[in-house]
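User: structure tokens for this one?
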Amino acid sequence: MFYPLMFEPRLKERVWGGRRLEELYGKPLPPHRPIGESWELTDRPGDVSVIVNGPWAGRDLRWLWQSHRQGVWGGAVAWERFPWLIKILDARQLLSVQVHPPAAVAARLGGEPKTELWYITEAAPEAEIYAGLRRGVTREDFERRLREGTVAECIHRFRVRAGDAVFLPSGRIHALGAGLVLFEIQQNSDTTYRLYDWGRVGLDGRPRTLHWEEALASVDFGDIEPGPVPVAWVESKTGRWRLLVEHELFRVEVWQWQRSTEVCWSGGVCRVLGCVNGVLEVQAGEGSVELRAGRFCLLPAALQSVTLRVSEAAELLAVGPVGR
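Assistant:
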């Protein structure tokens, strides 16, 4: 019954977006519109991924989770919706300075907590990320700078390049810099509190809404000068891999293989695979799919084993539950 599942991307117009998702990954972007996000796997109200392959083509992730939750996840789970939201982002301009609320704050404010990981797949030569606070910045400094319109000077920033990963727990103030394309693995949430938007207007020509009160309640003022996830590769018989994050919400690894490689993984674990570059076939259960750069598939836990056949040197992001 179960097999590797692929989904139709849901494209999102953003004032800071561009056309790189079409140029890099062949996404069918609507003409003359800045597309900033491709939601590759989503079970959000009003934004649910539709299956495009196999016997369940035309069904969606909401149906799959409601009808086959145990087969997808591999055991009892209390989450009402699929727990991860997977995106590709194309930032041609700076994103707003923003923060996502921790669970306790989200409950009080009527929002949802949100923790995420960014994996950079393309970076302009001097591309930067803003994350956390600069050393020595106090809450009083921060609020004063916010009123003055210079709050960006309080935020730590650092350069990134392709292959860097940045972890953003809820409460970490951040802004994605211009000239970056990345895969985003996040908690199933869409709550963002915007602090500063660089003086620009939105797609409607008006300034976008700021959420100072909610954001100030959410910022972790003890989060000082974080950086990218440390690089620590582990060599295997067939390639190499590194752990990007192991959090209660998800475990994310990146794998690299040379061409003409076959890899066998045991099943029993829900996984989402995203191809960063290269070409590989994913075979499991009653079906197989081909992954190329910018394509994702969901492997339900009911699959007993998974075989990856790498035809061109490939890099793959693998998302799974922690401790499994």
